[in-house]
Design a protein that fits this description.
The chain is mostly helical. It has helices at residues 3-38, 55-94, 99-102, 105-123, 150-190, 195-232, 241-268, 270-281, 285-304; strands spanning 130-133, 138-141. It has a single domain, classed as Up-down Bundle (Rhopdopsin 7-helix transmembrane proteins), CATH 1.20.1070.10. It is found in: Membrane.
Length: 314
C-alpha cells in the first residue's frame, strides 16, 4: 500500500471519527440539559410540587437560569458541527483534489474550537434572561422581558435566533447536500458502477435527504413561532393556548432532532458504526483506521480494473 494513500486513509478516518464523536457528545449534552429543563421539573412526584421553597421549585429555578443556557449553547454547537460535517462531505465528493488540503484533522479541530467559542459568546446573554432566588425558587424575567427590553427581544431573541439558529445552518446543509446528491447521480450516469458502489451511493443519498428534511421539519415550528412573536412583539405562547402548544411541540422537535442524528448516522454510515464499535469495545482506533484503508484500497484496485474509480461515500 502506498504510504501517502495509507496516511490519507488513517487521517480521514480520524477526522470522521472526531467529527461524529464530537457530535454525539454534544447531542448527549443537549439531551441531558433538556431533560430537567423541559420535563423532569414538571413531574408531580418531585417533593414539594409547585410549593415555594420546595425542592421542586428550587430545581425549576436552577434549570431555567443555569441549565437552559447551557442547553442552548450545546444545541447551537451541534447544529454547526452538522454544518461542518456537511462541508467536509461536500469537499470529499465534489472537490476530491482539495479535500486533503482543507479537510485535515488540524483544520477540523480549529473549526470546532471556533464553533464552541462562537456558540458560547452567542448564548452568554441567556444567563441574564432570568433571575432567581434559589432559596425560594421564585423566578423573575431579566433580559427576556419583552416590554422592558424591546430591542433585545427583537434583535437577539427574534432576528439572531432565526438567522443563526435556523436559516444559515439550513441553507448550508441544504446546498452542500443537494450538490453531493447531484454529483453522485451524475457519476452514476457517467460510469458503470458495481452493485456495491451503487448501494453505497443510494445510502448516502437517502441519508442526506433524511438530514435535510428532518432539519427543516424539526425547526419549522420553532422558527415560525419566532416570526409570530416578532409580529406580536411579545411571547405569543404566554397569551394564546394554540401557540403554547406549538411552543411545547417545537421544543420536543428540537430535542428529537438532536437525538435522531445519532441514529441516522448509525443506520447509514459505516464509518460511524466503526467508531462507535471502537469506543464500546475499547479497540484501538488506529487498528480500525488501518482496516478501513485496506478495504478502500481493495475496492480501488477492483474498480480500477473495470475502468473507473469509485465515488466517495460515507
Amino acid at each position: 500500500m502506498p504510504p501517502v494513500i495509507d496516511h490519507y486513509g488513517r487521517t480521514h478516518f480520524e477526522l470522521v471519527g472526531f467529527l461524529l464523536l464530537s457530535l454525539s457528545i454534544i447531542d448527549l449534552i443537549v439531551l441531558l440539559t433538556a431533560l430537567p429543563t423541559f420535563s423532569l421539573y414538571k413531574l408531580p412526584f418531585l417533593p414539594g410540587y409547585q410549593k415555594i421553597g420546595s425542592f421542586h421549585t428550587i430545581l425549576s429555578a436552577f434549570c431555567i437560569v443555569y441549565v437552559y443556557p447551557i442547553g442552548c449553547t450545546a444545541k447551537m454547537t451541534s447544529q454547526y458541527i452538522i454544518v461542518l460535517i456537511a462541508v467536509e462531505r461536500w469537499f470529499a465528493v465534489c472537490r476530491p483534489l482539495q479535500v486533503q488540503v482543507w479537510c485535515t484533522l488540524r483544520n477540523t479541530i480549529r473549526a470546532m474550537i471556533y464553533i464552541v467559542v462562537i456558540a458560547v459568546m452567542f448564548n452568554a446573554p441567556r444567563f441574564l434572561e432570568f433571575t432567581a432566588d434559589l432559596s425560594t425558587g421564585i423566578v423573575n424575567m431579566g433580559l427576556s422581558h419583552s416590554a422592558n427590553n424591546k430591542w433585545y427581544f427583537i434583535l437577539y431573541y427574534g432576528i439572531r435566533s432565526i438567522f443563526f439558529d435556523t436559516l444559515i445552518p439550513f441553507a448550508v446543509i441544504s446546498v452542500t447536500n443537494i450538490q453531493v446528491i447531484a454529483q453522485l447521480k451524475k457519476s452514476n450516469e457517467e460510469r458503470k458502477l458495481l452493485t456495491t458502489q451503487q448501494q453505497k451511493d443510494k445510502k448516502t443519498t437517502t441519508m442526506l435527504l433524511v438530514m435535510v428534511i428532518l432539519y427543516a421539519s424539526c425547526h419549522m415550528f420553532n422558527t415560525s413561532l419566532k416570526f409570530v412573536n416578532l409580529i406580536f412583539k411579545t411571547y405569543a405562547q404566554f397569551q394564546f393556548t394554540l401557540f403554547r402548544v406549538l411552543h411545547h411541540i417545537s421544543n420536543l422537535l428540537l430535542v428529537t432532532y438532536s437525538m435522531s442524528t445519532f441514529f441516522i448516522y448509525l443506520i447509514f454510515s459505516v464509518k460511524y458504526r466503526q467508531v462507535i464499535a471502537a469506543v464500546v469495545s475499547c479497540r484501538n482506533m488506529e487498528e480500525l483506521a488501518t482496516n478501513s484503508s485496506r478495504g478502500r484500497m481493495k475496492q480501488v484496485k477492483t474498480t480500477s480494473s473495470n475502468g473507473y474509480k469509485p465515488i466517495k461515500s460515507v
